[in-house]
Fold this protein.
Amino acid sequence: MAKSDFRKNEMMFVEVTGEGVKCVEAVKVNGEGLHNLIKGVVGDGKEIRFLLDNWVTCDPLKAKFPLLFNLEKDERVCVNDRFSVDVGKFDGLWQWARRLVNRGELMEIEELNNLLEGITTGNKPDKWLWLGGKDNLMTVRDVKPSLLGNKDFSNGYVVVWCKWIPKKCNLFMWRAAMDRIPTKLALKARDCFSNHLTCVLCGDGGESIDHLFCECGMAARIWHAISSWCNIPPFFIFSIKDLLEFHEILGKNKTKKNALKGIIMISCWYIWKSRNEIIFNNFSVSATEIIQNIKSLGFLWYKVEENIIV
Ligand SMILES: [Zn+2]
């Protein structure tokens, strides 16, 4: 996988949309809401949300123009939805719930027109700047130390098992949470490995637990697919323990939380299984195959458990 693709995949974790906004707003970096530290730079305008993301100023337009925001029918529109295709400029076409009538609304639209004058869209993809570090580039490595300050990394961390998935998946997660699976970096630390340390799934980065399940380009694709499949906001994770707690933030009720928890555990177990197939059996495994198999196993095991309970 090319380095640029990897960067793009990393950004999947920080897409700030809908419920994702709440999730990201809750995350603080040095006391600052994480969403305040991410700013879009307009390219083709297809990724940046016109009203919800920070892009023209350091606040989203919904905060700067609350009256207009209240009248917009589709709050998730992207920048290119509101810019003319022909000239790439703001065209003022909104999906208003009604016409603008009062003075406050008219003043806001005038101010917005002034603000967006001179901004154009182009052909290159949108970019995201990380305002919390040097070079304005966001990498997992940059943000991780700030975010992990209040996490429990002691051996006392308890993995609560998921009952509807096989014991082998629960056991695997328990060992992974304690950093007890034999990744290349773990083996090297114990003087048991001297070959290349590169991750075989993405070919980029040393193979550690956090890399395999959080930083890896392959993992990013998998989590992106899983979030779409489960109809939840994109994952925002920096460590294996984030994965183990993620269902609590985004699961809508107890049943869905339990289902999401199991799917995440199956995914981790299957990522490790695929990694072993590549290393020990010389198989080539694609992200699409892994995602399909995770979905099939998840569906099958969930149904089996459901039938047992019924
Ligand atoms: Zn990797």
In short: The CA atoms of residues 76 and 126 lie 16 Å apart. Residues 1-23 have pLDDT under 50 and may be disordered.
